[in-house]
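Justification of resources, computational component.

The compute hours requested in this renewal are based largely on the per-chain cost of generating structure records like the one below. Each record pairs the submitted sequence with a full structure-token output. That output is archived, and it is also reused by downstream analysis tasks.
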Amino acid sequence: MDAQALFAHLMKAHVAPAWRRMGLRGSGNAFRLPNDAGHYALIGVQRDKWNTAQRCAFTLNVSFTSAQEWAAAQVVQPWIGDAPNANAHTPGVGWWQRVGSLVADGHDHWWLVQACDDGEGGGAGGGSAVDGGEVVGVDAVAAEVIDIVAEVVLPQLQARLDGQPVPAPPVWSWTAPSRT
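The structure output for this chain reads:
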């Protein structure tokens, strides 16, 4: 299975169902945390534009924009569309961060999925994540993506939805291989 197909499987079979169990709605590369006020609490899955059949790197973009702020921005910038997109930040409107900046070390973080022959990776579909020669099944990547959304991203979005102080950036130990 090539890296692109493996990434699609990782999202469809593991990550998206887990995120939906957490209350998120969406599919593909766009998810939202529903709320009665109509605010935009979003998670976008961004793939590297240089991905190939052999490797697929991706990160998460997180954004929050109140419904009122978006409506006001549309009056001045009508080209921005009907709703914000976490993967296409509109400067000066709302709050937007990459997932890596939400933790204490604050660096940009991209997960890396690589294709390999069946049986070599120990992951779904025989694929792997590779870092420094260490082969880890894609299940490890999926688990980390699910965990960071549950433990870091959702508390950030929920605090913004509730008008509460945002949590301090936690210490996070990245365990799945990455390209950073």
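The mean pLDDT is 89. The CA atoms of residues 35 and 94 lie 16 Å apart.
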